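Our working data are protein records whose layout never changes between entries. The record below serves as our worked example for the rest of this section:
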Amino acid sequence: SELGAPRPASDQGREGRYRGLFEESRMPLFVMSREGVLLEVNRALTELFGRTRAELQGLSLRDLTADGDTIARLLDELGGDGPGGETEVVFRHAAGDDIICVISGGGHMTPDGMVFHGTIRDVTEQKRTQDELVRSAFQDPLTGLPNRVVFMDRLDRLLRHSKRRAGDRFAVLFLDLDNFKQVNDLHGHIVGDQLLVAVARRLEACVREEDTVARIGGDEFGILLETIPDGLTVTVVVDRIRDALAQPVAADGLDMGTTASIGIALSASGYDHAEDLLRDADAAMYRAKAAGRDDYVIFDSDMHDTAVRQRQLEDDLRAAMERDQLSIHYHPVVELTGGAVTGLEALIRWAHPRHGMLLPSEFMPLAERTGIIVEIGWWVLREACRQLRAWQRDYPDSAFRLTMSVNLSARQFVHPTLVDKIDEILEETGLDPGLLRLDLTEAVVMQNASLAASLMTRLHERGIQICIDDFGTGYTSLQQLRLFPISGLKIDRSFIGQLEADNAEHEIVQSILALGSSMAIDVIAEGVETPGQLSQLRRLGTRFAQGFLFSLPLDSNATTALLEQTET
């Protein structure tokens, strides 16, 4: 034996087998002295460190790492009464690379004294994977900033700390870049990403080390300003941010500046939940954007009251479907030559228990912001298709060829299950796809023209009609319009309202009618309210129209009565 007196042959045989197992093991193994000097190493351990057996034997573990304190703790642990645990140590490979290892083992007495034996496992890749997972969970991969999860955690801790120390104040800034979508559309996502990274660095340079800058998502950033004396301090920082963003950014050979709309919520207003602070800063940001952009708004008591009402309305809206408070009214589309009703437009209404009957303009923007609009949209589509199919069965002469127009929101249109969901609803209700007309605004279509064209083509292949709503208010060029498989245009009511007084409106309406004729698609005039407007539309050759002059939107019972009257 290398560590004692000669042994009997039987012991020598066992030792030989042990040496064979020791040497051939794929696990790096060692035997070392009480002082940490390596006495024996196997082949796997020499490969781990990139050194020969002769180079390793006689070295102390301290010679292989800069972390001598950890080795000292390891030796103390191995020399204790209990079993040895696992210790993480960063060793240095012969090539100079760091190797993260875990050492485990135990000790036993020999005639020559205490020795330790154990394993050294390389966990470098495992640790790197874990670190990467941690980074991806808490760090924005593009800018390297903390992400929303980290931001909300720090905001929550800051809020709880401020409650324990009444004099401490802080501020939350919610920043949204102005017109960032145009940067992506005009110059591509590479330039957009470069701009976001540049913005991140500039925001970091505008705040103190103890403050937090995070990327909340897309082109939205959050900033936590800790320990501020008053609101004036915040405005100084905001002015610094606005000046920094205005400086040109070099991105893919382009020099461009940017602006931002900034909302501010101050902790002095009194909050119990971190989410409420961020929500109020977000609300203030939208107020700044509505005021003309490149501006900031501090959330105040009036906005707080509005936000409270909005939150209550949001809660009510989430429960409205379960409580059967939503209904559909149907607005007739009239053929001007003979006055026949040729179609119906489904318009949602909300019978609110406190506020009475609410129109879409009073709650659909809220539904859009919160995402509830997708679920509501599917309900409207299903109910409208079901109702038209029921009327077709009950009043075949007057309802059989009626079309049903249903508005699609921006969120609903780009929903990944859009086409499948429409297929499902049509199959469930039994409605002929050719009688369904989906209304999309120009803004929705032009948000992503290529995606819109693809989705519209898939719907058109099923026989579903596509109509561009509020036409004339957006930026759709004639060339772009011809790329879409549409079957109709709806002239925005703003043009119809001026027909009796403004010759320019005549020309716009006439141009839209000519466009529809050249494309062989229907053109519908919306918002017809006076006999004078109707007269002008007839003179211009308009075929279809809808508006209060013909009928108010009707609930299902009133629409049924209209169909009964037409039937007889």
